Amino acid sequence: MPDAPMTPDTLLSMRDVTLAFGPKLIQRGISLDIRRGSIFAVMGGSGCGKSTLLKSMIGLLRPVEGRFEVQGEDYWAATPARREAINHRFGVLFQSGALWSSMTIGENVALPMQMLTDLPPATVSRMVALKLGFVGLSNAVDLFPSEISGGMRKRAGLARALALDPDILFFDEPSAGLDPITSARLDDLILNLRDGLGATIVIVSHELPSLFRIADSGIFLDARSKTPIAHGSPAELRDHCADPQVHAFMTREREEGDSTP
Amino acid sequence: MALTGRWMTRDAALPVLPDDALDALPKGDTLGFDIAGLESWDSGFVAFLWDVKRAGQKTGVTLRTETLPPAAARLLGLLPDQAAEPPAQTGRKPGFVEQIGDRTFAALTETGIIAELGAQAVKGGLQAVAGRGRMRMADLLANLTDAGPRALLIVGVVNFLLGAILAFVGAVQLEKFAAGIYVASLVGIAMVREMAAVMTAIIMAGRTGGAYAARISTMLGNEEIDALEVFSIPVSSYLVLPAVLSLTITMPFLYLYGCLIGMLGGFVVAIAMLDVTGAGYFHYTVTAFGIGQFLFGLSKSIVFGAFIGLTSCRIGLKAGRSAADVGVAATRAVVVGIVGVIALDALFAVIADVLNI
């Protein structure tokens, strides 16, 4: 619920955030609270600003208005150094993996540790093996991103996101472009990582089966009114939301009166 | 096994399990964990547990993971039982003679492919002239603008300075023999015969050739080339032909322009440094070279243009699909372009010697 009082459990919260690219308004009036250890889904149709909302959470896009808080600290009001420190708690899985193409998978996972920590090389390579072991890519350490499949690239991106042991993970469309079995395995992996690492996860997705399975709460963004129109877990939205558009989205039916094929 | 204290990665003192740690345990035994003294842990702890799990797998000891913290047990469950096997070494290293043979064949194949690409482009060009071509005029125009008017400034600056440098070097030497006026002939012959064509080609290899290779290899990475092929739109007429044609068309004009600007550079230096009149300089310039030498330079510039266009497109087309590969392709196109132009120029010098130009 957007106006519920903030509990000590709340790790991330937004208050009346407006997002825009220059003069182009993307979304306004976004308020949300994300509990520690939960999986929060950002839902909505194509082009409604889901990925933009994610960008504003990971520090790539400054909101025009409103507050974004990480553990009660105003993220955008913090000094750049402080923001960097907060960012080290974040792990981001980009839509197509965004692996650095000139490096092997192992080097991709190792780079954040080499650049941002003082870990000795032996520990780094042990951690690389561990993170790749989590995602089932132990055999791909020495392969280049161009040599592996799209699904593997996503898992490698996930291993890289885990490099610094983050406690907040952001996933941009993790199961887009994956077959149902691979996608279900990725869901298992996400749940295992949440429980194993105690991480909080924000996930942008419109893959309904995956959303119903893993998300505890969420927000539904509307492209037409450019504002969130529903809050709640995907199952709640499907079963109890009165808004016809949300209902149509969650049940994969067409809205009444919508005659477009 | 009792695990106590802090197990954080950043403490950098994470123990490594000795290889023979579990060897003393009989096969089929189970190993439980005493975690009463465990304070805090992160993935470094899991890394150690993974060592134990793999050692246990080897000696046939089962871990009682229920005695671990539930979260750690869950993460451990994700990890495979065996360490990754190093990939098998494929093939042996070829010997020296074999390498030479391989390279020779590769070079010959490459020459063949470029020749074929050139033939396709020529065929496409002839079809375009006959009005049956499938090249889009908009592409050709865009390429022409880029390889022509937009290159005027840099070609002008370089050739002007080149002419001035030639005149400067020549003036110092020729003045000793009171033959200062021959600076005009020197600059004229040098620009027309060699410098304007070669320098302009080098500039175009760096500027336009590199850009073609980078653009085409990026298109390759975005599957744009695959899309063309699926539509069976020939890459030769959509991409290669406009590139080669525009360079072949603009290079002679840039050569002519380079000659004039170079002579202007020489003129400025000669007037400033020597006791020559404008009319005298002009006279010695135009009588210095014959039409044969001019045509020689002009044909060189056309060949250079076609060469740069073809090789840079070919290098772009055979590049890999990653960001790093785009960089490699651009670099290679520039290097091959410059070295190739100079090698061709040497070939032209031999031909000129035979033909007595």
From TrEMBL, chain A:
Any GO molecular function: ATP hydrolysis activity
UniProt entry tagged with the keyword ATP-binding: yes
Keyword Membrane tagged: no
Key words, A-Z: ATP-binding, Nucleotide-binding, Transport
Residue span, ABC transporter domain: 12-250
Pfam families for the chain: ABC_tran
UniProt cross-references to Gene3D superfamilies, sorted A to Z: P-loop containing nucleotide triphosphate hydrolases
Name used for this protein in its record: ABC transporter
UniProtKB/TrEMBL annotation, chain B:
Organism: Acidomonas methanolica NBRC 104435
Source organism superkingdom: Bacteria
Name of this chain's protein: ABC transporter
An example Gene Ontology CC term for this record: ATP-binding cassette (ABC) transporter complex
Gene Ontology terms, MF aspect: phospholipid transporter activity
Highest classification ranks of the organism: Bacteria, Pseudomonadati, Pseudomonadota, Alphaproteobacteria, Acetobacterales
Transmembrane residue ranges: 151-174, 180-206, 255-274, 286-310, 330-355
Keywords carried by this UniProt record: Membrane, Transmembrane, Transmembrane helix
